[in-house]
């Protein structure tokens, strides 16, 4: 970090987690993640096959949308939206304004094309459902957020969508619903303008993924990024790590996790550290992504063993490949660390599948990471399961406390080592070529 940056990290050991319940507006949950693509159809199909996510809704030429093609995948409460622009001339040929038929009216043709050119496949929007998107937007802007798209009503004023800049070309999207049924929910499959995909439902897919646990961003400088997001959301610090916590003798990073009141919306951010033997993997990301962006998406599974078995079947036939597993020595002490939570059979399966296991004073964390999902060594996927921290609501229904098991320093360190080793395999050919 720069000398003028007074932002100081305490590190994992010294950090004391507190929850001041300081949100500036009511945040309910993650609503969806939108990827901007050059080709939404094939990108969505790849994610559907690799993650076991069902095609459930569409907005494209067949639904009257002449602005963009958007396809929604769903697994449990996890929604991934894949969007690609049509030519602006399509709408103009019908004497329509560029975004008049768009179901996501915040899309800008030139920005969408520039996004793909600069970043390759990546996340454009992290969408959270709020009580009132207009209030969330005005509150955010009045507290320093940079506006991206002012509030716009969708359908017959059934939903409101607004966006503020998060980091790089990524926006934080606010979504709220006006017309709700008797149980307090809305009747839309997703958003107004989207139609159900009937044919896809005849081929059910479900690998056990249930929701988005957290969305991680890489930024050039952590201090300004954390201060910016905290200032307009009121989110509090949930965890932090320094290079001493998770780095190696060759490289490192710093990281802070921000959370909303109920700690179900978790937004970690990483920065590179400099002066090390190797370039920080965060710096590698920033160079290939041409700036800040979403590094990975952590998807919560109800049964990580089932999810991984299904995903690994498809790794080399259109699915996602995984980072190298930790060495056998990692699993030798696993029974001592988690034998009261995992059976001997599950511990064996963790080793076979390459699952990392860590815990804190509240719960246990199981996780694994894919290799980058596109051409560039940038965005990847994490599969996660949290064990423990079960609570009851006022109706007696059980639910799991947000962030149960934390963010495992041991797991974080193993991930860092794994990415470092993976990057070395990419560099080997470059070094050989340079020396030829």
From TrEMBL:
Residues 29-177, 211-371 form the VOC domain. GO terms for molecular function: 4-hydroxyphenylpyruvate dioxygenase activity; metal ion binding. The keyword Transmembrane helix does not apply. One of its GO terms (cellular component) is cytoplasm. Its cofactor is Fe cation. One of its GO terms (biological process) is L-phenylalanine catabolic process. It is found in: Cytoplasm. Keywords: Cytoplasm, Dioxygenase, Iron, Metal-binding, Oxidoreductase, Phenylalanine catabolism, Repeat, Tyrosine catabolism. Fe cation binds at residues 214, 296, 382. Pfam families: Glyoxalase (PF00903). Binds 1 Fe cation per subunit. Pathway: Amino-acid degradation; L-phenylalanine degradation; acetoacetate and fumarate from L-phenylalanine: step 3/6; Cofactor biosynthesis; prenylquinone biosynthesis. Gene3D superfamilies: 2,3-Dihydroxybiphenyl 1,2-Dioxygenase, domain 1. The keyword Cytoplasm applies. Belongs to the 4HPPD family. This is 4-hydroxyphenylpyruvate dioxygenase. It comes from Corchorus olitorius.
């Amino acid at each position: 970090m720069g000398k003028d940056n007074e932002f100081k990290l305490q590190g994992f050991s010294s950090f004391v987690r507190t929850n001041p319940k300081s949100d500036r507006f009511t945040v309910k949950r993650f609503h969806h993640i939108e990827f901007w693509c050059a080709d939404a159809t094939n990108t969505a199909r790849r994610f559907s096959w690799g993650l076991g996510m069902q095609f459930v809704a569409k907005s494209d030429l067949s639904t009257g949308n002449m602005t963009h093609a958007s396809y929604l995948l769903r697994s449990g409460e996890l929604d991934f939206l894949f969007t690609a622009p049509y030519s602006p001339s399509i709408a103009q040929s019908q004497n329509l304004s560029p975004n008049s038929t768009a179901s996501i009216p915040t899309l800008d043709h030139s920005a969408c094309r520039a996004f793909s050119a600069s970043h390759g496949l990546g996340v454009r929007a992290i969408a959270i459902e709020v009580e009132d998107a207009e209030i969330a937007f005005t509150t955010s802007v009045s507290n320093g957020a940079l506006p991206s798209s002012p509030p716009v009503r969708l359908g017959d004023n059934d939903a409101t969508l607004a966006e503020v800049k998060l980091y790089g070309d990524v926006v934080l999207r606010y979504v709220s619903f006006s017309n709700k049924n008797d149980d307090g929910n809305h009747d839309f499959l997703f958003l107004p303008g989207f139609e159900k995909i009937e044919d896809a439902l005849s081929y059910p897919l479900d690998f056990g993924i249930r929701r988005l646990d957290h969305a991680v961003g890489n930024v050039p400088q952590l201090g300004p990024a954390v201060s910016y997001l905290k200032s307009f959301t009121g989110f509090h610090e949930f965890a932090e790590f320094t290079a001493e916590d998770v780095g190696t003798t060759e490289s490192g990073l710093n990281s802070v996790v921000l959370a909303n009141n109920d700690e179900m919306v978790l937004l970690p951010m990483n920065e590179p550290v400099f002066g090390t033997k190797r370039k920080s993997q965060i710096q590698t990301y920033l160079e290939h992504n041409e700036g800040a962006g979403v590094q990975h998406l952590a998807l919560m599974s109800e049964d990580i063993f089932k999810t991984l078995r299904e995903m690994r079947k498809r790794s080399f036939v259109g699915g996602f490949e995984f980072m190298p597993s930790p060495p056998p020595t990692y699993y030798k002490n696993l029974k001592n660390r988690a034998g009261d939570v995992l059976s001997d059979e599950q511990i064996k399966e963790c080793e076979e599948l390459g699952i990392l296991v860590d815990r804190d004073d509240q719960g246990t964390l199981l996780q694994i990471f894919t290799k980058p999902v596109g051409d560039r060594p940038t965005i990847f996927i994490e599969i996660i399961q949290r064990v423990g921290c079960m609570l009851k609501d006022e109706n007696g229904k059980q639910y799991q406390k947000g962030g149960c098991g934390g963010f495992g320093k041991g797991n974080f360190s193993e991930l860092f080592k794994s990415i470092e080793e993976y990057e070395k395999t990419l560099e080997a050919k470059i070094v050989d070529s340079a020396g030829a």
